[in-house]
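User: Second chain of the day. Same drill as before.
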Amino acid sequence: MTASCPVRSGNREAVLPARPGLLETGLQDHLDALCRSAAALFDVPIALIPLVDEDRFRFRARCGIDDDGIDRAGAFCNHTIRQRRGEILVVPDLTRDERFARSPLVVGEPRARFYAGVAVGSVAGRTIGTFCLMDRIPRSDFTPDKLRILQEFALIAEAHLQLYETRRASQAEISERSGEEARLVEWEARLRATEAAHAMVEDVACFGHWRIDATTDTIAWSEGVARIFGRNPELAALSVETHLGFYHPDDRERVLRSITDALAGRGGIQSGYEHRSRIVRPDGEERVIGVHGLAEYDDAGRLSSIFGVCLDVTDLTRSEQRLRDAGEVMRTTLEAMDQGLVMVGPDARIRLLNQRAHDLLDLPETLLHEGASWTAVRQVQVERGEYRLAPPEIRDWLEQGSGMPPIQRYERTRPDGTVLEVRLAPLPSGGLVCTYTDLTARRRSEAALRSAEADYQSLFQNAVIGVYRARLDGSIVQANRALARLHGYGGADELPLTDAGFSHDWYVEPGRHEVFLKLLGQKGHVEDFVSEVRRHAGGQRIWVSETAWAVRDAEGEPVWFEGTVADATERKRTQALIEHMARHDILTGLPNRRLFQEVLTREIRTVQRDGGGVAVLCCDLDRFKAVNDTFGHPAGDALLRVVARRFNEVLSEGDMVARLGGDEFAVILPCPDDPDRIVTIARRLIQAIDRPIDLDGRATTVGVSIGVAVGPRDGDSADTLFKNADIALYRAKDSGRNTFRFYESGMDQAVATRNLLEIDLRNAIRSSGFTLHYQPIFNLAEGVVRGFEALLRWDHPVRGPISPGEFIPVAEETGLIAQLGAWALNQACREAAAWPGELRVAVNVSAVQFRKAGLEQAVMRALANSGLPARRLELEITESVLMQDSDSVIDCLHRLRAMGVRIALDDFGTGYSSLSYLCRFPFDKIKIDRSFIREIDEPVAAAVVRAVVGLGERLGTTITAEGVETEEQLARIRNKGCTEAQGFLLGRPQSAEATRTLVARQRAA
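Assistant: Same format as last time:
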């Protein structure tokens, strides 16, 4: 092995002493921290940043050594700085290298045996010092990966030094600028005088002028232009792009094209241009301006500027538009008419007609058009036989051929069967207006109505439900066979109809007939009037549904009523069964949540009216899930039936137990003044449920935890009382289960809040109460969206939006995060599958999901169900995921990556293990935490960003900057070399629908 092994070789660069400014102590703390980090990472006792100072190396930062410097003659760094900047000099064993064997650092303290150093340079590119490591034992384990990491540390140190040097140089540059500003004062004075003269002219003439500088691509306004635009009162020079931004969005491209052509010498008027366009003033008002510009050329004949004038022509434009609108309204009205219209002038020529007239008269446009002879039109119609079925008066008039017809409204049937109503209205000027209405459909409807009337009697008698007509007192005067059968008769002829009518009062409930007639009289109709009745013949009881309506005369007064009667007996039986099922649990037969809520509400009202109290016991079975998992769901169902029976055995008449769902039960105890009874029943319930249960020869046991709330003390409504009993239940579970606890107003509010949040979280998961919003991620080089990050949102029905920072920890603590995460994966993949191209979707994965089995299966299911290619899915993890069980996590990540899924390291820089894990797993993306972007103007943050970008370039990893909120931040991360950006400046998280709109807009662009 050779005595030393530099990583690269090349020409030596000039080595100069560090500037005195670099030896100041402004960045001492940052550089010392960097040395300590390097010493810890490489497991060496000494890390230094020596800088050249004449004949010595001064330790700008150090870790593990007390001296502040060393002579150049005896320093290892004297050899390192002869390397090219960024090259590494590594000496595995200093005692075996004759250049260093007698160095004071080897033979004396710190008795160095190993050295590795990297040359660092100034802003000008000159080498000014090194970043080096020393160890007291020989080292042969410095791999290429460690060499690259050492180079990254050197880059960070170099960035700190260069930033400080640049700041000092910028201070000198600022002082130079102040002198130039003074020379502008005199020019501004002369310019103001000229502008005042122009402003006076413009104020009198109500116009403005402007000038576009072809070299700077800027435009200067006069005061007149500023008044027209309502902007830029200070008359500052504007970029043409800014100027175009004040135009209406629909006009900008056309105006830009005019300016571009004029600047290129392609203008139509002396290489200038003119246009009429809309502008938008600051208050949102739209104005129309006329612009005319002429080109100006310098002595060499080159176009130097375009000078022009601007005139507000809004009022003129609006007047023109009103004229056009009036014509369009008239034409639109004519064309919207259902009637055909022809207006004939005194000269017997057509002046106006609409398309409907063409359609109804079925004449060619060569004959029927504006300006055509009306006499010729009538003659063609006569020849075609159009008036063959017209009234005789019209036929006689046509034979005479002049004057107005004797009748001005008539009907005629065309040869094709179309029935037209013709109306003629004379005009004061001597012409007339003819309108044509198509009555064909109306006449056919009238014929159909007559046919329907004939069919009515047949339907009346053969209807399967009873149909009748009755007087206003309810006596039936006409009925069909079905009604006779409902009354117990064989046919309509058996009904005892007399002149006085047949009494329809067959109701079992007294006064029911009067109620029916009263409703009919008040409303004029009755629908689905369900009653129990007694057949006239036989006396059998049945249920019927009646619908009736009043029939009125021409004055609107009721003269009789008609109605239908249907057998509703089976319907009532079905309703009773449904009503019972709607209020009872099918498995146990106990009241369900709905009936429980109704009874509890009724009991609370009784307490509020009469005094006393009511207790609610929320009961949750302990160890029930174990029974389900061990013996199966049929056994679990059998156990629930046994538990329901034992509840009823303990309770007394007047008490109620309900099954709310799963293994949740609730008890209502009316307790006027007996709190001891509540305690006794709670204990008896615990003892009863705790007894062994035989499940087909297999004995098992479960327990029950009970929470008790007593109203009205603990709540004056059903919801409040139940909620407080539920809070007490969670306290019972926290106390060891198989016990009971009373609700207390002094219970820990945080626990109650957390429990309520968990309850709401579970309900939200069951009811799909979550949504995903998508924040765009932009490719900085191309300026387009390359993907979206899916972000979980919960809009609570009561509390409103709840921050993920509040509910995600609860989901992780309760294990619900696995179910929630799988839902988010499925939703995000399904949504992304509808996006075009290669747009990716990024989904955050919790550390808890890695601890539980099934993450890889969840990913595969989401991809398979959605059809999304694996390469378009990106999983974002934080460093905390890697810190829990790094080997298993790394293996899982490798398997996911082998499937084609991309892996991103989120919030980089906020943890403690970043660099080591970057070596162990090839992340596809590193996302720089928003805290560094927010403070990117600070030297440390800027250096970290630059270093991370450098790491990404060497590792082939995409670097994404998070939290970009300002244009300045965007410009800085772009200059630093970040490949992607994400933040409110570029796009806030938005709904799936809005995201699809954004994707479609980008694709269309």
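DSSP finds 32 helices and 38 strands in the chain.

User: Great, on to the next one.
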